[in-house]
Amino acid sequence: MRTSGWRAGCLAGGALLLAGACGKAESVDDAGGLLWETPELPGPVTVEVNGRAVDPVLIHGFLLPLWTEHGAQQAAAGAQPTAESFFTAPQELFTPLVRGIVLLQEAEARWPDLPAAEVDHLQAEMAANTGEVLAALERRIGAAGVRAHVERELRKRLILEAFGAEAPEVTEDQVFARYEEMMAEVEDPALLLQMGINFSTLAPQIRADLERSAAVAAQEAWIDLQMPAARVQVGLPGRGIVRW
What we know:
Layout: H1 12-19, E1 26-28, E2 34-37, E3 46-49, E4 52-53, H2 56-76, H3 83-86, H4 90-110, H5 116-130, H6 132-166, H7 172-184, H8 189-194, H9 199-226, E5 232-236, E6 240-243
């Protein structure tokens, strides 16, 4: 029987989207001086997967952290980041986004309609967990955009749970083996035991973590099977349309 511990795990693509809630990125040194400032993300950028346009909010949220990292690398080399330097290998750059979109399209097909109460609950949970970041996202993309984002996150949870149900059952031997690995990494296992931290107390979380890992592995394997058939079209500044 599956537990639901892994269902409440991290909001995979949502973390990237929330990270991209603001426009520019910069880094400061310990004294507060500006080390580098990344210019605005080059655009416009468009993406279509299997003939369906990808929400620009998702594209921006995906690209901004990568653009920021690219800017830091260019600054370290004494150069400025440009669209040309950033979009050198578009298929490699966009593959993680395409994988996520392929999964979202499957989730939308399985759950075209979501109970409003579940969406409301998840939105409240995300607001409590991210605080001002979700509010900043709403200021940038509006209430409807945030609602669409929450619905995507709910579908991602549902489809991960579905893949988890299809994954091999986690055995007691696997749980105990992981427990022994964890204890081997502790400097003083006896101290933990004295504190009441033992196999019985850790087993539920270990099982939940192993089940989530199995669900993610099953999900990634499914995406791997879909990727060869995925039709992708990307519009890039200065390069036009790139297809694969």
